[in-house]
């Protein structure tokens, strides 16, 4: 199978070729390996590969599965494979190996997908960019020098450049949707609990984190979700396995009541400036949905964006402090000696100074937001708004500067972290962290399904995604709408030109 031919197919298309015996599993696998070997040295999507093991696993596949023989990549975060490195984007875990496969990995393999390696993520998945100090930074295949976003930035680079047709990804505050927007992909975040994090974790970030994938087609996303959804035996959420996600795509959604928003309530107080290209993308989406027969109305969700940002960052800090303790336990290295980035260390120190009262009050606001959105959805079936305030940033543009890292390093002085929190540093962190991407955390806090759909190309050649948020549990309806939009807009499945210059 020629490399250029391989890159024209989505995962479902490749599976169909294999099933019809027009190509062999081996041909598809070798084409994927060739694509990674050609493009990864320039684009840095994968932090490690496992080609020989993948070849062996491909030979043992059960051939009647939906994606039998289709290549993919997993993420260097949470998605453990027994006895194989999983660094969480951090030098502190560079030699750590989990003892068992994550349930997501088990289900991915059961669907017939062959895992060729792991993709780049920021340290511990903490940023909306993917620039870990321990690994090379992935490039956005659309334009050299630009970020693919994060935390699933390596996954987005791999799919957008054609290395693999889909890549596993995770989303705790927009980490599927932001890279999808920046790289012209389809990114679907399922409802809370739909995809379990077992066996190592019951939940991550109080249920804000959910795993799925980045794809070029809606049918790939739906097909994968059909295989990986459903609670774990010891999971915290009683979300039973569902089928019918793929079948639902063939049925157009009924006329929906759709709210369109530029997300102003979510960005208020953060100093966010919405780029003209993003406004155009939202307006284009509104026009398309109206032309498709849906009832479209401009209406903002009634939520307090600054309160959401504060509550999100409070739990973020607390969980990071706990995560660093876990890393210390796994490696036998004291927390203060871990090989971690200055910003990670500083945020972790702040997390140790939060009280149980701080934590509980923050979590209660998540429930306030969920109730507010439940009332909002009594009138509207879905909410359309931006994914990010602008197109992809340049690499290095959003990473803390050396001077900022030095200031954060002062938090090691006894007592200073507590004083910093009392002085309002949490709000300052919220502003700095979320100014460019204040729109995606809402769905993580409320547990709602949400997606980024590729709707626009900016004047500088970078893509712009638009976010669509559905009612809690209404994943099928959201995928139906995505499939109808995909057909109506004739989403371009071509690959970015930059990737072919390697």
The helix fraction, in percent, is 40-55%
Q: What is the CA-atom radius of gyration, in angstroms?
A: 21 Å
Question: Which percent band covers the strand fraction?
Answer: 5-15%
The whole-number mean of residue pLDDT values reads: 93
Which class of secondary structure composition applies to the elements? Answer: alpha/beta
Query: What letter string, H or E per element, gives the SSE order?
Result: HHHEHEHEHEHEEHHEHHEHHHEHHHHEEH
**Main sheet overview:** 8 strands, mixed
Oligomer state of the chains in this structure? single chain
What's the β-strand tally? 11
How would you sum up the global shape? globular
Strand order of the largest sheet: 4-6-5-10-11-9-7-8
Distance between the termini: 20 Å
The helix tally amounts to 19
Residue stretches low in confidence (pLDDT < 50, at least 5 long) are none
Structure description:
The protein has 502 residues and is an alpha/beta fold. Helices cover 41% and strands 12% of the residues. It has helices at residues 3-6, 11-19, 25-43, 51-59, 103-110, 153-160, 177-183, 218-228, 245-248, 264-267, 276-291, 305-331, 342-352, 356-376, 402-409, 416-422, 425-434, 441-446, 475-489; strands at residues 46-49, 71-75, 114-119, 166-171, 186-189, 210-215, 257-260, 295-298, 382-386, 450-457, 463-470. It has an 8-stranded mixed β-sheet, with helices on both faces. Strands 1-3-2 form a 3-stranded mixed β-sheet, with helices on both faces. A hairpin with a 5-residue loop joins β10 (450-457) and β11 (463-470). α3 packs antiparallel against α4 and α12 packs across α13. It is globular, with a radius of gyration of 21 Å. The mean pLDDT is 93.
């Amino acid at each position: 199978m020629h490399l250029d031919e391989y890159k024209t197919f989505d995962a479902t298309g490749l599976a169909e070729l294999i099933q019809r015996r027009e190509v062999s599993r081996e041909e598809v696998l070798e084409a994927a390996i060739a694509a990674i070997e050609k493009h990864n040295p320039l684009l840095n999507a994968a932090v490690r590969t496992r080609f020989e093991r993948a070849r062996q696993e491909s030979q043992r596949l059960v051939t009647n599965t939906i994606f039998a023989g289709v290549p993919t990549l997993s993420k260097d975060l949470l998605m453990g494979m027994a006895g194989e490195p999983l660094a969480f984007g951090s030098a502190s875990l560079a030699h750590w190996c989990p003892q068992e496969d994550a349930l997501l990995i088990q289900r991915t393999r059961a669907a017939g997908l062959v895992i060729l390696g792991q993709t780049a993520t920021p340290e511990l998945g903490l940023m909306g960019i993917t620039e870990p100090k321990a690994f090379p930074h992935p490039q956005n295949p659309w334009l050299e020098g630009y970020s693919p976003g994060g935390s699933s930035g390596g996954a987005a680079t791999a799919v957008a450049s054609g290395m693999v047709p889909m890549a596993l990804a995770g989303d705790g505050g927009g980490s599927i949707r932001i890279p999808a927007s920046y790289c012209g992909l389809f990114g679907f975040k399922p409802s809370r609990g739909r995809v379990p994090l077992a066996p190592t974790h019951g939940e991550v970030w109080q249920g804000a984190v959910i795993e799925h994938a980045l794809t070029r087609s809606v049918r790939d996303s739906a097909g994968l979700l059909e295989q990986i959804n459903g609670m774990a035996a010891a999971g915290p959420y009683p979300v039973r396995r569902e089928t019918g996600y793929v079948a639902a795509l063939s049925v157009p959604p009924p006329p929906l009541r759709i709210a369109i928003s530029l997300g102003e309530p979510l960005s208020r107080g953060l100093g966010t400036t919405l780029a003209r290209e993003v406004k155009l993308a939202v307006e284009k989406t509104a026009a398309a949905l109206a032309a498709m027969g849906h009832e479209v109305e401009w209406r903002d969700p009634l939520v307090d964006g600054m309160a959401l940002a504060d509550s999100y960052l409070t739990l973020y800090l607390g969980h990071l402090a706990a995560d660093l303790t876990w890393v210390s336990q796994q490696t036998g290295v004291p927390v203060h000696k871990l090989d971690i980035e200055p910003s990670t260390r500083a945020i972790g120190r702040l997390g140790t100074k939060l009280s149980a009262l701080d934590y509980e009050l923050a979590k209660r606001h998540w429930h306030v937001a969920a109730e507010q959105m439940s009332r909002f959805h009594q009138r509207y079936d879905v909410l359309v708004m931006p994914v990010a305030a602008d197109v992809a940033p340049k690499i290095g543009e959003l990473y803390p500067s050396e001077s900022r890292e030095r200031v954060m390093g002062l938090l090691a002085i006894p007592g200073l972290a507590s004083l910093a929190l009392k002085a309002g540093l949490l709000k300052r962190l919220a502003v700095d962290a979320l100014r460019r991407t204040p729109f995606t955390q809402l769905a993580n806090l409320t547990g709602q399904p949400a997606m980024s759909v590729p709707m626009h190309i900016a004047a500088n050649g970078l893509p712009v995604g638009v976010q669509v948020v559905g009612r809690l549990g209404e994943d099928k309806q959201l995928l139906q709408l995505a499939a109808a939009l995909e057909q109506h807009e004739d989403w371009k499945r071509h690959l970015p030109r930059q990737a072919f210059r390697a």
